[in-house]
């Protein structure tokens, strides 16, 4: 009897999956043929590719403007037209105002952050947090950024004096985490000095590519939220969830009891927002923890990537390195060796380098959206994206398409020169566009530029690995497999930077 029951269950499951995987065929929509039970993400499930590379390969397998794919069990549309993608993000935002990623405010409060919240809840929270990322607030944060930069120099000076080979991905990550701890969490850490600082461990655990459960979590958050609902897993490992909640709760409760102990950091800005609301739709501590966590993870990955990938590319491009370094030296000389908000604005070529880095290595290789209202596709007769359909904009695929970016494999900062642009500006949006673009993009860029200015003005870097980067498999972000080791030495003609 058991054997017959098992056989019947297997047949029903198989037929059910066949039905799920016939969705695009039943719709008469151009699509890639799926494989049971992977959909079109077998390489990701078998941990042969990172998520960004796996989706990029789907992009390369078709010439269709819109392409039906299966993200495991979830039908989705891959938008292969950069101009249509921009329209979805900006002009037609009302049809695509939600991301469609996992968010369960009641069962998993840490998932209810600014990135994931839908509809009106996202709009209200975005309005509350936007004032914390103005130019004025960034100027106030500059002293904090520069204080942490002293730790970076202290860490690198002896390594450079010995001509050591060091993983600049790891160094950059710990530098960024020291800044984030101060700016967002409101306390000092020693991540640069101690690779095993308690502030490092939760992020290391979260990004562990060898954790099967973490891989399920990542897939559930970004690709198929039903996986988390089906398995009952939370979006974060228990250690990360407990860490963020305890730290934020302690900081907020302590400062609300002692209002005289003010700091110019993100926690203080959240406290002020709670006080100004005066009980009227005020941010809860759980909401504060969820959003501080968001900037902990997103800020760490993005800024770390900009710094380390820029250094990696410059070590393979001597002409670009010389231009960037010459500009940095001249700007510092004009400002008496002082890094300031104003001096950073003058680094035009370094800005081009950062833009080119973000083209080749976007912080998130895809943008998620879900259609919230039936959308007749412009320029496509009778094609309608139905409400509830997941839409994927493959940033990595678009940015590596020679149709939009000539010679995409070449690191070419000059392509972004406003006088002689060599790219399609409607195809470049590494931080997203429209109302749901990255709220902290200017802060992330400023932090990255400070780190690059400090290092390029003081040290020489020499590549020890090939230019072509192999990414860690099964990871959502573009994380280099094995890090980015470089030989670091002291510049013989190094500029003097005053902090």
TrEMBL record:
Which parts of the sequence bind heme? 438
GO molecular function ontology, one term from the record: heme binding
Q: Which coenzymes or cofactors are required?
A: heme
Where does it reside? Endoplasmic reticulum membrane; Microsome membrane
Q: Where is the signal peptide?
A: none
Q: Which family does it belong to?
A: Belongs to the cytochrome P450 family.
Q: Which PROSITE patterns match?
A: CYTOCHROME_P450 (PS00086)
The answer to whether UniProt assigns keyword Oxidoreductase to this entry is yes
Q: Name one Pfam family in it.
A: p450
Q: Which CDD domains does the entry link to?
A: CYP6-like
Q: Which keywords label this protein?
A: Endoplasmic reticulum, Heme, Iron, Membrane, Metal-binding, Microsome, Monooxygenase, Oxidoreductase
Lineage, top ranks: Eukaryota, Metazoa, Ecdysozoa, Arthropoda, Hexapoda
Could you tell me the membrane topology recorded for this protein? Peripheral membrane protein
- Show the GO cellular component annotation of the record: endoplasmic reticulum membrane
Record's protein name: Cytochrome P450
Main localization is: endoplasmic reticulum
């Amino acid at each position: 009897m058991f054997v017959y029951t098992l056989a019947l269950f297997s047949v029903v499951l198989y037929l059910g999956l066949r039905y799920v995987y016939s969705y695009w065929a039943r719709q008469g929509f151009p699509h890639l043929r799926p494989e049971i039970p992977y959909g079109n993400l077998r390489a990701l499930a078998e941990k042969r590719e990172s998520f960004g590379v796996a989706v990029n390969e789907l992009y390369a397998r078709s010439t269709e403007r819109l392409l039906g794919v299966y993200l495991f069990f979830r039908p989705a549309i891959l938008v292969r037209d950069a101009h249509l993608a921009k329209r979805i993000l900006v002009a037609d935002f009302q049809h695509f105002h939600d991301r469609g990623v996992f968010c369960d405010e009641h069962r998993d409060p840490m998932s209810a952050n600014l990135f994931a919240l839908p509809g009106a809840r996202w709009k209200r929270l975005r309005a509350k947090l936007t004032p914390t990322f103005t130019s004025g607030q960034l100027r106030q944060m500059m002293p904090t950024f520069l204080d942490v930069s002293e730790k970076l120099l202290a860490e690198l000076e002896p390594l450079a004096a010995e001509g050591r080979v060091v993983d600049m991905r790891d160094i950059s990550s710990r530098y960024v985490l020291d800044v984030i701890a101060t700016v967002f969490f409101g306390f000092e850490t020693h991540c640069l000095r101690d690779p095993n600082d308690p502030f490092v461990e939760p992020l290391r655990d979260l990004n562990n590519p060898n954790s099967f459960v973490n891989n399920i979590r990542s897939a559930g958050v970004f690709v198929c939220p039903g996986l988390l609902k089906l398995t009952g897993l939370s979006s974060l490992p228990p250690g990360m969830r407990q860490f963020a909640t305890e730290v934020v709760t302690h900081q907020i409760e302590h400062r609300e009891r002692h209002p005289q102990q003010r700091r110019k950091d993100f926690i203080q800005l959240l406290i002020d927002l709670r006080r100004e609301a005066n009980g009227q739709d005020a941010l809860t501590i759980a909401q504060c923890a969820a959003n501080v966590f968001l900037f902990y993870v997103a800020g760490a990955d993005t800024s770390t990537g900009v710094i380390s990938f820029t250094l990696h590319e410059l070590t393979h491009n001597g002409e670009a390195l010389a231009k960037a370094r010459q500009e940095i030296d001249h700007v510092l000389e004009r400002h008496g060796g002082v890094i300031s908000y104003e001096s950073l604005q003058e680094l035009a070529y370094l800005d081009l380098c950062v833009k080119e880095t973000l083209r080749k290595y976007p912080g998130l290789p895809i943008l998620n959206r879900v259609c919230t209202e039936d959308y007749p596709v412009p320029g496509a007769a009778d094609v309608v994206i139905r409400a509830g359909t997941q839409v994927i904009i493959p940033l990595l695929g678009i940015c590596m398409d020679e149709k939009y970016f000539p010679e995409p494999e070449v690191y070419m900062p000059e392509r972004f020169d406003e006088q002689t642009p060599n790219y399609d500006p409607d195809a470049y949006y590494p931080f997203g566009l429209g109302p749901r673009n990255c709220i902290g993009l200017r802060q992330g860029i400023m932090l990255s530029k400070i780190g690059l200015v400090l290092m390029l003005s003081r040290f020489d870097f020499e590549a020890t690995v090939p230019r072509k980067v192999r990414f860690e498999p099964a990871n959502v972000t573009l994380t280099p497999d094995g890090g980015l080791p470089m030989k670091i030495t002291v510049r013989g003609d190094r500029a003097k930077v005053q902090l």
